[in-house]
Structures are given as structure tokens and as C-alpha cells.
């Protein structure tokens, strides 16, 4: 009933308008209502076009020019409304596509790739990221990285590391060549003098193992020092050896908070130790010397740690699969410590001929040594990656 009355009222007002029975003020007000009410506009168009029955003849009281003007306004109103709807839908779909394939793709490839690469280089002694591939779909992306480690002069496969995202949810997963990450490289965090005197049992097994190997072999060796060293002090210490340094163990301030630190001797390995693969940092346009330039190396490492601190959400999502279960990354705390205390080293991964590694036995500052992977002689030929040239 209410609807019928409303229709009758609308019809009465339309006819009054068409007959010219409204005052100028009433007609102006009614035209505004027509522009805002689609039902009024459609019914007016029917009356003017001749589909309104007997009442259509009443439209003769309006001039032809007035009728055309009303029709033009009505038609353009509908056209503009449809166009606005179409444009709005197009913009919305475009925005979604840009978000999915643009922002998320950029987010994954620019930041997630860099964070994942850093976390491998900073928490996995001896490992580096090799070749990588990626796929991007609607609201989905994936990156797969090859993991490599240098043994002698060659880079060898150690597994893969994959990162994927659905919308903004990031997940990461390492897959090791042998099914699990074999812990061979350990570092002894420097503590008391008494601990240094008792460190022979952490060195002698490594020397005994290396002595039993044929001369024509190469190996990895993780060595630890009795004190914190600057880069320049480290290079001065190993300047007389024909060895490659592939990774540094860095004091980031959190080592002293490790649950095992209270026992006096703290051995750290992948998942607990922090450092960096020295050849994988961005040192800028000018190439860095093979040895030395300690301040430049420290600045590059600190800059990358600051980047990780600024990407805390990504770093936590990706890094949790590379650290020991239950271990908090504490990137901001580590970064602040490095800013205040500088970058200081307490261990390194070195690789080269077994006979050259054995010479390190004469260094009294080495408190621990652990043998990693071993391979046949490859020291005097370039590696497949092209990273090494003949000495």
C-alpha cells in the first residue's frame, strides 16, 4: 500500500511538472530530485518518449527544446553512472593485480631474497647462496636458492633454501643434501685464562685427523681464538698461510646470554653462532683487497645488520628456520651492540691444503679447531664458480 501511494505521488508530481503547473521554485527543486532519483528519471523518460499511455499527450505543454534538454540530462546521467561503475571496477581489479603481482612480487624478490641471503650468510658457517630461481603467481611467490660451501678451491652443493609467500604470509625451509645439516664446524667463545689452558683437547683431535689425511687433499677448518680480534689483527695473524677465509664468527653481544654460557666453555655452531661470509657482503663499487681493509669490512657488515633490524618481521619469519629451535634472533639487540662495541671476531672458517692447515698448530692463540668437509686436491685449479685462481 505504501509503495502504491508513493508511485501515485511520483506520477502526480511528474504530470504537474510536465503540464507546467509548478512554480519556478518548485520546478527547480523537482529537477534536482529527478537528477538524484533514478525512478523519477526513468518514468520521466518514458513519458517523454511516448511509452506512458494517455498521460504522454500531456507532455505537449512543454516545448520541444525543454523535452530534449530533459532527455539529454537523463541519458547522460545514466551513461556517466555506468561509466563510473565500469571505471571503478577496472581500477579495483587493476589495484588488486598490481598489489598481487607488483607489490607482493617486489616485496618477495627485493626484500625477502635479500633477508634470506643474509640470514644464510650470517648464521650458517661456511655456507653461501649460489644460483636461485623464482616463481610469481596471483598473490603467491616462491624463491629457491642453492646453498654452496667452499672446500679447498671448489664450491660444493650443500642443499637448498626456499622462501614462499601467500598474500603477506612468509615461510621458509632449508633442505640439506644429506637430509640434515651435519654439524662439523664449532667455535669456542673466548672466556677465562683457565679455559684457554685446558683447550688442548679441543684442538688435538683436529690436528690428528689432518695428519692422517693424504697430502693431496683439501679441507675446511673452524678455528677459534683466545681473544676478540679486529679484522686487521686477524689478517696479520694468518698472513703467512696459503689459505682462504670463507666465514667469520662475530661477537654480537648475545653469546654471553646463551644458556650454556654459565658452564664456562661455550661451543657454538650453525643455529647459535653469528658472523658472515666475507666475500658475500656489498663493499660498494671499488673492489676490496683479499686481505685487510678491516674498517671497510666492518662497516659493510654493520650496514647489513642494520638493514635486517629494519626488516624485523621478514627476518624473524625467514630466520627462525635457520637458528636453533626456541632461539630468538634479537636482531635489534645485536645491532646496537655492534654499533657500540664495533665488529670483533673470535673465530673463522678457513680452507686449503691439509698440509697448510696443519701449520696452524703452531699458533698459541688458537683455542679450538674442528675439521669440516674434506676433498681431493683442487687447490691449484680454478673452481667451477670462478672464485679461485691459481696461487
TrEMBL record:
Coiled-coil intervals: none
Domain Sigma factor regulator C-terminal: 210-372
Domain of life: Bacteria
Record's keyword annotation contains Membrane: yes
Record key words, sorted: Membrane, Transmembrane, Transmembrane helix
UniProt entry tagged with the keyword Transmembrane helix: yes
Residue stretches making up the Sigma factor regulator N-terminal domain: 68-155
Transmembrane feature ranges: 83-108
Listed name of the protein: Anti-sigma factor
Amino acid at each position: 500500500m505504501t509503495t502504491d501511494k508513493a508511485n501515485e505521488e511520483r506520477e502526480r508530481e511528474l504530470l504537474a511538472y510536465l503540464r507546467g503547473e509548478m512554480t519556478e521554485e518548485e520546478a527547480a527543486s523537482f529537477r534536482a530530485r529527478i537528477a538524484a532519483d533514478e525512478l523519477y528519471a526513468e518514468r520521466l523518460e518514458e513519458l517523454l518518449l511516448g511509452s506512458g499511455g494517455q498521460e504522454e499527450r500531456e507532455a505537449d505543454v512543454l516545448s520541444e527544446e525543454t523535452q530534449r534538454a530533459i532527455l539529454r540530462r537523463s541519458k547522460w546521467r545514466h551513461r556517466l553512472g555506468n561509466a563510473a561503475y565500469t571505471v571503478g571496477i577496472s581500477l579495483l581489479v587493476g589495484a588488486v593485480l598490481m598489489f598481487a603481482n607488483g607489490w607482493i612480487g617486489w616485496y618477495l624478490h627485493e626484500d625477502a631474497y635479500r633477508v634470506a641471503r643474509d640470514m644464510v650468510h650470517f648464521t650458517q658457517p661456511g655456507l653461501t647462496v649460489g644460483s636461485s630461481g623464482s616463481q610469481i603467481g596471483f598473490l603467491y611467490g616462491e624463491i629457491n636458492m642453492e646453498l654452496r660451501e667452499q672446500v679447498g678451491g671448489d664450491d660444493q652443493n650443500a642443499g637448498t633454501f626456499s622462501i614462499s609467500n601467500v598474500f603477506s604470509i612468509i615461510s621458509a625451509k632449508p633442505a640439506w643434501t644429506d637430509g640434515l645439516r651435519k654439524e662439523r664446524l664449532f667455535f669456542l667463545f673466548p672466556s677465562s685464562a683457565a679455559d684457554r689452558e685446558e683447550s688442548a683437547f679441543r684442538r688435538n683431535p683436529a690436528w690428528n685427523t689432518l695428519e692422517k689425511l693424504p697430502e693431496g687433499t683439501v679441507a675446511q677448518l673452524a678455528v677459534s681464538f683466545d681473544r676478540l680480534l679486529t679484522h686487521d689483527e686477524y689478517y696479520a695473524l694468518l698472513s703467512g698461510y696459503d689459505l682462504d677465509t670463507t666465514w667469520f664468527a662475530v661477537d654480537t653481544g648475545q653469546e654471553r646470554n646463551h644458556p650454556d654460557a654459565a658452564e664456562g666453555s661455550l661451543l657454538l655452531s650453525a643455529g647459535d653462532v653469528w658472523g658472515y661470509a666475507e666475500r658475500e657482503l656489498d663493499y660498494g663499487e671499488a673492489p676490496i683487497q683479499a686481505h685487510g681493509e678491516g674498517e671497510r669490512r666492518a662497516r659493510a657488515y654493520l650496514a647489513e645488520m642494520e638493514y635486517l633490524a629494519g626488516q624485523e618481521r621478514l627476518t624473524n619469519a625467514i630466520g627462525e628456520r635457520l637458528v636453533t629451535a626456541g632461539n630468538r634472533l634479537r636482531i635489534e639487540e645485536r645491532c646496537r651492540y655492534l654499533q657500540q662495541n664495533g665488529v670483533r671476531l673470535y673465530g673463522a672458517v678457513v680452507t686449503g691444503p691439509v698440509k697448510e692447515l696443519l701449520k696452524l698448530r703452531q699458533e698459541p692463540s688458537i683455542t679450538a679447531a674442528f675439521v669440516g668437509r674434506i676433498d681431493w686436491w683442487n687447490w691449484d685449479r680454478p673452481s667451477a664458480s670462478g672464485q679461485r685462481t691459481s696461487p
